Structure formats: structure tokens, C-alpha cells
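Page 42, continued from yesterday. The earlier attempt failed because a stray header line got pasted into the input along with the sequence. Redoing it now with the clean sequence only.
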Amino acid sequence: MGTELVRRGVPAPAPAWSAHALDVAPDQVAAVHRDYAAAGADVHTANTFRTTRRAVGARWEELARLAVRLAREGAPPGARVAGSVAPLEDCYRPDLSPGAASAPEHAALARVLADAGADLLVCETFPHALEAAVAVEQAARTGLETWAALTAGPDASLMTPAAMREAARACIGAGARAVLVSCVPATRTLPYVERLAGLGVPFGAYANAGGASEGLGWGADDERAAAAYEALARAWLDAGASIVGGCCGTGPAHVARLRRLIDSAAPDA
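This time it went through. C-alpha cells are written below.
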């Protein structure tokens, strides 16, 4: 959502990031959801990655509810809307994480997302194992299905595959019903996916497009970039992944390729 909004000319200043668009360009947020729906996405993540008091101030709840509504309006019948719960500080700075002290803020957002009508909650792009588990625990307390998505960062340096497995195990213990690799360069995602196998819950990945020179996104030719991303995602599915998508630098063309890939791999295809 965030990088797709930027690609369409919507500013995303810190600290609000993609949440800024809820104020200045809600029509563009809605358009992104419609385009992902047309591409075949069946889980639509609401633009709530930064709808926290820390990031957007006193109007955080209003913006979170708007984001869920826009996602619901853009998603087709039968698709699910996921509320995004993100690290309270920078998702690439685990050293800034408040750890266990994050519980009240994660609980507040999770309750609002559940009340606004989200179908599930995704605690996503966490590089800090403890805060991830805390967020999952608070999200799961709403009664909604909760997924945990962990990141090793844009250069895969924040968490080893083995460390991600242990973090995922802790998140499962806290209530996660699926575990995912998120926002790791697509070319470096497979070892992380492989380490999520055998934990007893569905697993998968939604990677970023890596560096611009890799040609997987960031304004590269959509079809060529999406085809290259699809080839990498095929290996994740071969490793047992059952949930795949796209993160920073990817867009609807990538999801359309993933939709066709998954449909072609279905037993009755």
C-alpha cells in the first residue's frame, strides 16, 4: 500500500507514512484496494500500518476506522480485510522497540480494528521478537484470527532464518494462527520461508522488491518485474508456503501473477 501510493504521486511523510494518504488522498487509497481486488487478491490489508497515536496523533482512531472502511469497500465479496498492526517505532530499528511496554498501545489499535469490522489482524513487519509476540497476544485477545509477519529488514541483516523461526514459535505461543516472512528482499526470502515449515500453522511470505537494480519492482517494467517475482514465489510454494503476497516495491501486477500461479497449482486446476 505505502510504496504503491508513493508510485501514484501521493506523499508519505514520516512519521505517518502511508496513513497520511487517509487525510490527503483517501480516493487513492480506495483505488489501490480496487486494483488489488481486480488483480485477484483475497486478503486486503487496510492502510492502518501507521494509524497509531504515536504516528498520527489524536485522530488515530478515526483514521484507522476509515482505513478499514476503504478496504472493505474495495474488497470483492468473499475477500477478507486484514487490520495491520505494526511496530510502534521504526520497523527497521529493533533497538527502538518498547518491548513488553508496547502492550497497551497494540491492544488499543487491535480493539479498534476489530470493532471497525476487520476479519483478521496481521501483526506485520516486526524485527523484534518480543514486541511481535506482545502484539500478537493483544490482537488475539480480540477473538479475531491473528497472523504474525516478521522481517529481517531491507538487507536481511536484522534476523537470521533461525532467529525468525524462534520468533515465529513465540508468536504461535501467543496466539498466531499463521506466520509469515515480510519485507525481506524477494531474492533472499526463501531461507526464511524454509525455516517456518514444521511449526504447526500455515506459513508464507510477502517480500519486498529488493534493490532497484534487481528489476523486481520500484518502477521497473511491471510485467517483467512481476514475472521475476513470480519465479521466486514459486520456490516459496514449493517449500510449503500457502500464503503469498507482496510488500514494498511490488504492486497489483505482482499480485495478478501470484493469483495465476496459485490457481494453476490448485489440485483441481
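Notes: Residues 222-238 form the longest helix (17 residues).
Reminder to self: strip header lines before submitting.
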